[in-house]
Specification:
The complex is a heterodimer of chains A (355) and B (228).
Chain A (H helix, E strand, L loop, with lengths): L2 E9 L2 E9 L2 E6 L6 H9 L6 E6 L2 E2 L10 E4 L11 H5 L1 H4 L6 H10 L15 H13 L5 E5 L7 H17 L3 E6 L2 H7 L2 E6 L2 E7 H5 L5 H4 L5 E11 L6 E5 L2 E5 L9 E7 L3 E4 L10 E12 L4 E8 L2 E8 H7 L6 E6 L12
Parallel strand pairs in A: 3-8, 3-9, 6-7, 7-8
Antiparallel strand pairs in A: 1-2, 1-4, 4-5, 9-10, 11-12, 11-14, 12-13, 15-19, 16-17, 16-19, 17-18
Chain B lengths: L7 H34 L5 H13 L2 H12 L6 H6 L8 H26 L2 H9 L4 H30 L2 H7 L9 H9 L5 H31 L1
Classes of the chains: A alpha+beta (355), B mainly alpha (228).
């Protein structure tokens, strides 16, 4: 299943011009507020009709179809549960509307999102996080061919977000439909995205796999300096007896992380922000940082301010490091130069560690 | 016979009032819901005009409303002959009493339902559409349940108003015992005759009791609506 879209839409002074290909998996649409992310998402669901262009969902032309015929599940920023129904009534609403949902799928979704204890409760007795989980479940129970999520976590506090993210990861890994996920939170994007589409001023300006986009220096102006970095898939090897840290392996070598023993033995995604990497021309000695990677410089990208993004490769993995232009000049960094990258073990943002 | 017990004519007037008010509400509710929906949800040329027309019976002298009803539905009125062909006489019948009461109660019913429509979050209906609800299903299973209390409150307040309607009713359908004499017109008739004080007190007490009950009920429903 996939989503193909090429539309134009004008609302007052705002113009949206978007092209999007979302395969199965989670595609994050990222961009500053006002860049048209929500407008694009609403067009996918048929809540806005584009002035021109086409939308194909699972191979069917849905360009002008009304929302109820599109089979697009939509998770809004606010949960939008129906207050006159209880939780079970909300979850079964799509079925009442004629959507074909088997009892097995229902119990799977209830289990996946741990909704069992909530079923008999009334909408107003739910916390924000619970309500958003029910809203997720309800969208999944509408037999969607595509799932749109509009900043589903933005209304929740940090702690709740951390508790819901694993549910989203499970959902992403267990459904085979395209999920289009709008956010302006970089760590959320890094943790969840399989693919990334960047938007600016109503236009989709760049798209590709998550690791491609996040480590592309040209994407930095839109991603923001803080969001730029690398997402790598690593295998956890286990607790390192000597250091008391968790060792993980990736294609370019090994890294030591703070104790994450709860995820030992699994493949995890790790985000290393460009600003957390320090570069050295020679292998440093007597250093507190434990992770020293050897790489080759593959590109530079000059920022608006005094910074430079240095792109380098360790094995097959592309990293970004943000250093000052002054340092780059002083060190005499050039293309294809050997470089040592230093990453503090404590730099790994637990929020950026996903499965 | 104690002074508290009602005479046959009084029972007749009370029963007739009840049926007339019920009929008035029953038939004006669907139209009032539609008008309230249109007024609450759409902005169009003539919106203010429609709103004014709906509210006219509330501010016009009831006798004018009654007269206009005669002009429209009287035997020699604009639509009267049409209904006569169908075998329905409206003026000077209990059907006419229900029409007059319905027209007078209409603005109150519309107001109550319109407020309910305006209190609903339209984003819930949007959510319903993405869950597979076609517009008619969304209306049936989301909009209608959500305005339910407002609908009921409108019906109750409309019923109370219809029960007490006097001016338009007596102008349009006169004051025929057993046919068009409601509680209000019965009280009016009793007041014209000396020595009927006991009967007047009985009917008035009954009227106050009914109106009070209806208002209490409508308040309770309105409160429940605000809470949800």
């Amino acid at each position: 299943m996939s989503l193909e879209l090429d539309i134009k839409l004008k609302r007052g002074a705002f113009e949206l011009s978007a092209k999007l290909h979302a395969p199965a998996g989670l595609t994050v649409i990222f961009g500053p507020s006002g860049s048209g992310k929500t407008t694009l998402l609403r067009a996918v669901a048929g809540l806005n009709l584009p002035d021109q262009g086409t939308i194909y969902i699972d191979g069917l032309d849905m360009s002008v179809a009304p929302p109820y015929l599109r089979s697009v599940g939509y998770v809004f920023q606010d949960a939008r549960l129906l207050p006159h129904l209880d939780i079970a009534g909300n979850l079964d609403f799509p079925k009442k509307m004629g959507r074909n949902v088997s009892a097995e799928v229902r119990s799977e979704v209830v289990e996946l999102l741990e909704l069992g204890p909530l079923l008999g409760r009334s909408v107003k007795d739910l916390s924000g996080g619970e309500a958003q989980r029910v809203s997720l479940g309800r969208a999944l129970l509408s037999a969607p061919k595509c799932l749109c999520m509009d900043e589903p976590l933005s209304a929740l506090d940090h702690g709740l977000r951390q508790r819901i993210l694993p549910f989203l990861e499970r959902m992403r890994d267990q459904t085979r439909i395209p999920i289009v996920y709008v956010t302006h939170d970089a760590s959320e994007m890094a943790r969840l995205a399989d693919h990334i589409v960047l938007m600016q001023n109503g236009q989709t300006v760049m798209s590709g796999s998550a690791s491609e986009i996040l480590s592309n220096p040209a994407a930095v102006p839109i991603l923001g300096v803080r969001a730029a970095g690398t997402v790598i898939s690593v295998k956890t090897l286990g607790l390192d007896a000597e250091t008391g840290l968790t060792a993980v392996a990736f294609s370019g070598g090994q890294l030591l992380l703070p104790d994450t023993s709860h995820i030992v033995g699994r493949d995890i995604r790790l985000r290393i922000a460009a600003q957390d990497i320090v570069l050295a021309k020679e292998r440093p000695r007597a250093l507190s940082a434990l992770n020293i990677l050897k790489g080759i410089i593959t590109g530079f990208h000059r920022g608006q301010n005094s910074g430079v993004m240095v792109q380098f490769k360790v094995g097959d993995t592309v990293f970004l490091a943000r250093i000052t232009a002054y340092s780059a000049k002083k060190m005499g960094l050039v293309l294809n130069q050997k470089i040592f990258a230093i990453v503090k073990a404590s730099a790994f943002d637990p929020a950026g560690i996903g499965t | 016979m104690s002074w508290m017990s009602l005479t046959t004519a009084e029972v007749q007037a009370i029963m007739l009032s009840f049926w007339v008010a019920l009929g008035a509400v029953f038939f004006s509710l669907p139209l009032a819901t539609f008008v309230a929906f249109v007024l609450a949800r759409y902005r169009f040329w003539g919106h203010g005009l429609l709103n004014a027309i709906v509210h006219l019976p509330l501010v016009m002298p009831p006798v004018v409303t009654g007269y206009l009803l005669l002009v429209l539905f009287g035997r020699k009125g604009i639509f009267g002959p049409l209904f006569e062909v169908l075998g329905i006489q409206i003026a000077f019948t209990s059907v006419g009493a229900a029409v007059a009461a319905g027209v007078m109660a209409f603005p109150l019913i519309v107001r109550s339902i319109r407020m309910a429509f305006e209190a609903i979050d339209p984003r819930l209906e949007e959510a319903g559409a993405t869950l597979g609800g076609k517009p008619s299903s969304v209306f049936m299973f989301i909009t209608l349940p959500l305005i339910g209390p407002g609908l009921l409150a409108g019906a109750v307040v409309g019923f109370a108003k219809a029960l007490g309607e006097f001016g338009a009713t007596i102008t349009f359908v006169s004051n025929i015992p057993g046919e068009t004499q409601t509680i209000a017109s019965a009280i009016y008739a009793l007041l014209q005759v000396p020595g009927q004080e006991a009967a007047v007190v009985r009917m008035i007490s009954f009227s106050i009791l009914l109106s009070f009950g209806a208002l209490l009920m409508s308040e309770t429903l309105a409160r429940r609506m605000r809470r949800s």
